[in-house]
Here is the input.
Amino acid sequence: MSEAALSFTGVSFSYRSDWLARIHALKRVDLSVPAGSSYGFLGANGAGKSTSIKLLTGLLHGHQGEIRLFGAPVGPPALRARLGFLPELPNFYDHLLVGEYLAWLAKLSGVTPARLPAALDRVYQLLDLGDLRRRRLGSFSKGMRQRFGLAQAIVHEPDLLVLDEPFSGLDPLWRARFKDVMAAERRRGATLFFSTHILADVEDLCDHYAVIDHGTVLEQGRLADLLGHAPLALTATGPAPAGAEALPDGQWRLVFPEADRAQVLSGLSATAVVRLERQKVALEDYFVARVRAHHAAGTGLKP
Amino acid sequence: MILLIAGATFREAVRSRTFLSLLGLFALGALLARVVGWISATDGHVVTVSLVLSLQSLIGVLVAVAMGTVLVQSEIQHKTLYTVLSRPLPRWHYVLGKYLGLAGALALGQVAMAVIGLGWAWVTGASLSPWLAVAVLLTTAEVLVMAAVSLCWTALSSPLLAAVLGLATYALGHAVATLPGLLHHLTGWKQEAVVILAGLIPNLGPFTYRDLAVHGLPIAWGDLAQRLGYAGLWIALLVVVTLSVVRRRQL
Here is the structure.
């Protein structure tokens, strides 16, 4: 987990939206995605998630700063053989059959003819595409396209799987199936890097996260550290300290930060403590508060 | 890599409605050409074959423009190339493969139209000169030049504008052939300007050999090689321009 599968160092990117205006999509972004991790890239619509992903997949170019894939600067196409990419709301050629399309994309990623049948069978099974292999992509629904999209991203067993809003257009059953497939890919050894604004998915799948807003990374780190910093809730009996909430049966409840643990507990006997538990952080609330605070800092408004 | 891209483009092109519809339209036109031959005052078979070859050229150019203009720009708009260019594939492989795939489909279309149209004329009693094969070859060269023109325009503009510019280039390309006869009407800088402008547009006149072939009039092999070489040079130039545009394109 020490080597970074993907890193952004001081990456800025801007483009012209018309003749006059220049949009600064990314502003000195620093990111480090540890090899083998599952990394959630969080941000509201237009925050810079897709721009970052397009830069690392070679669809956009001309950035300042450095983007490295497995330690090498992005640019040479050969590096992308280790990359699997599912774009947001993917689109495909209408007239090609599922089987021939997957085989074609696998070959483009360097899968040899000898390995091809096994590679195709693997993704047919993982995503239930075997019965659809003779269907044209033009006849597919949005959800089926998403399934094919994930299949083409993993068919060559990439080391880094980059997924842009992978759960778009999926029903609950296929959302769960996608999570199973992503977990399986991770067990195979792949690093997962996916963008989303659905935070429950991050809580389910990720061990690392970053929050981006208006092209700036607000924070990043281990999800366990974020959840570990959740406040503690103490239920006890005896004299209630200031700020405690009175409960029936002479008990009281006090919520306090981790930093105050020693101070709060030092004044209590062991028999007085009924229960001490860590509160669950609602990532969604945390994310909204974090982004609003960033907006407030920029605008001078109250968060 | 280039051949992989070309193969997929070829399959996608020959299965498209545009390709199949225009082939169907040609078959219908070939049937009607025989009717026109029957009612014509001159040699009906010559009229039929001439009409078939003209229709083949027209349909071929329409297919080339219609499919060439959606080849790159439409893929950018519909994001179909995201899953392709995010793989270990240089962009020039992609553009070259795309052109070769389309060229293969267009060449197949020309062969199919020749077999259908000339076959129908032969079945109904027309005698076919071997030089008709050369006429079909030169028409195919013209269609491949137009495919490169369309590809280039689509890299520089929207699909709709590229189609308009493609057809305008076709019209101007045939007008360029008449320029030498008009130049003596001009003098000084006007003459030079027209010569320079004419040089910027592929001259499609050399590919129109069908009227001579219908009457069995031969073409010198050296002349044929020169015309095919001219087509090859224009195709190479236009594909290189397209490559340089797509290489820098933000997706």
